[in-house]
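User: I'm putting together a teaching handout on how multi-component assemblies are represented. Below are the sequence lines for each component of a complex, exactly as they appear in our records. Could you produce the 3D structure of the whole assembly as structure tokens, so the students can see both representations side by side? Please keep the chain order the same as the input.
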Amino acid sequence: MGTRIFDLKKYLSTLRQLVDEALQGYLEDGSTSTRIGQAMHYSVMAGGKRLRPILCIAAAETLGGDRQAVLPLSCALECIHTYSLIHDDLPAMDNDVLRRGNPTCHVKFDEATAILAGDALLTLAFEILADTASRSSNGDPVRWTTVIAQMAAAAGYRGMIEGQMRDIAFEGIAIDTDSLKTLHRLKTGRMIEVSVASAATVCCASQDVQQALQTYSRNIGLAFQVADDILNVKGDPLLLGKSTGTDQMRGKNTYAALLGLAGAEQFADQLINKALNALDIFDSKADSLRAIARYVIERKR
Amino acid sequence: MGTRIFDLKKYLSTLRQLVDEALQGYLEDGSTSTRIGQAMHYSVMAGGKRLRPILCIAAAETLGGDRQAVLPLSCALECIHTYSLIHDDLPAMDNDVLRRGNPTCHVKFDEATAILAGDALLTLAFEILADTASRSSNGDPVRWTTVIAQMAAAAGYRGMIEGQMRDIAFEGIAIDTDSLKTLHRLKTGRMIEVSVASAATVCCASQDVQQALQTYSRNIGLAFQVADDILNVKGDPLLLGKSTGTDQMRGKNTYAALLGLAGAEQFADQLINKALNALDIFDSKADSLRAIARYVIERKR
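Assistant: Of course. Below is the structure of the complete assembly, with chains in the same order as your input.
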């Protein structure tokens, strides 16, 4: 496995372009003439990595599925991700003024517009999914309603939102590694997991395959957060498009703080190995997922 | 039509109880142990009129549909409505401290929790709909994906959210009656319309019937807002559970200000008559909808 050469850079850039074009299509559907449409467009097109959409597409391709079939799904994932960033950046939450090197939504527009732009992107995600489901010609809309339910559960009060609540509640309070793992699984992990799981639902994956993909996504989700913590200590602010050292300044609970930098790096490696092992049941079709797993801890931004 | 005696008071109280119990069920599903769950529960159970859920059920019953079949749908409508109130009340928007006589969510909890509770209720609405669709045993999940798409479109950046954007943008700026109508159709009308339209979708209503119901809901939606404006001038703050005279104080564009109190009352009557006329194609099964139309302008809160 993974001994063939897989051109990840090209794969990421191709998919990024595909996703960006599809997102443009959804966002320019008559919306940019309004201030709310402009705010939505501004934040979505601010140059994200598109990790969740790409994971979704790579998972679908691993299962023999079609890029185009899961493209709406991948756009919905990015809409939810962007909404969560806009709301997390608000003065009442992290009060961040920069995101990916640009002013955050509430700085560029205003607070009310940022709250509503987040609301609108969350709503748009479900509209995209429901529209796709209604138009689905392959006769099984139940798969799509399952996807909508999975997505809502991952994003909702038992998932991402609870993670954000804990992130705020724990700021400045020392917690142990297990609590930090649960926090991150909720805050970022659940949406990364559903990026893969929703593709598996659309592709009618078997239980075994779903299980393997969940082990994969759960481990890279956590590794992604550990890598984020490491980058906040030793990353390049210019490449990251945001300040570093901020976690320590804010008294945030991080793996770097709990395990030390070397410990955190070792932990991230372990997680990625677990993710790669879970992919052993797949052939070379999973090379994209394998390459993404390595990228998660090797990335510079 | 409407000459029979319809006991609206009893009908409203029965349905309110039914909806409240169903909402309790969704909200107490393990959520009240968390702060976010408590905030969601607090705002949803703060004693609303449940107008949208009741309209949804009344429309379904008019079409020979079943109360229980649209109960999840009516709960989803109330979740979206409550989320919109929580976010509208935020300091960055209307900065209201009282809602239905109680502290608003951000006052009772805090701003971050209120933003996230709104987000969580919006997400929960789609989870309820998707779960219902997935479990739907009557073989047509496409009806449900259509409902989800309708709901998202009504609540989103071309609907309710754009209405809120205009409401903020127009504060203190004089606008004409047409602009005010469009604002209200977006801000409150679209969700009232979809309360009825989604029931029609679930009940597989014909085009003609859908059209009649749309005329009905569009007119009562606008009448509801006109009545709100009138209540803000001459309502009883104790019955309303909120201060009166606030629209004038804030320089809000209202029908009372544009048309005068008598003119606004006349306009509301005209709208209700149009709504009632649209129901002429139905027999006594529509008596609940007829009674609700009258209630919209006769209510004291």
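A couple of points students might notice: Chain A touches chain B through 50 residues (CB under 8 Å). The radius of gyration of chain A is 18 Å.
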